[in-house]
Amino acid sequence: MIGTVYDVTIRDDSIRLGQFLKLANLIESGAEAKEVIADGLVTVNGEVETRRGRQLTLGDVVEVGGMSVRVIREEV
Q1: pLDDT digits (tens, 9 = 90+) for 27-68
Q2: How many Å apart are CA 17 and CA 1, to the nearest integer?
């Protein structure tokens, strides 16, 4: 069950999973992103994702360590 979902704004229509984890402050570095993704600790829309380069699009929900964040678009 997902608790609070926090919105994280991106500038474009998509972003790579590894980049988004850093942007959302869910991990400290690219190396840590690689590790948590490879270990199966990251879900995208409720499914385990093991590809660091997975393209996230608006509305996708990423969960790591009990924190859930949603990809939203920057308002112009």
Answers
A1: 999 899 999 999 999 999 999 999 999 999 999 999 999 999
A2: 22
Q: Name the residue among 14, 30, 25, 31 with its Cα closest to residue 64.
A: 25
What backbone phi and psi angles, to 5 degrees, belong to 30?
A: -60, -35
Instruction: Give the pLDDT band (50/70/90) at residue 76.
Output: low
**What whole-number distance in Å separates Cα of residue 37 and Cα of residue 39?**
5
Q: Please count the other Cβ atoms lying within 10 Å of the Cβ belonging to residue 32.
A: 14
Residues in the chain: 76
What SS3 class is residue 73? strand
| Pairs from 37-44 (Cβ < 8 Å, separation ≥ 24) | 41/65, 42/17, 44/17
- In angstroms, the Cα distances linking 41 to 13, 26, 74 are 25, 12, 27
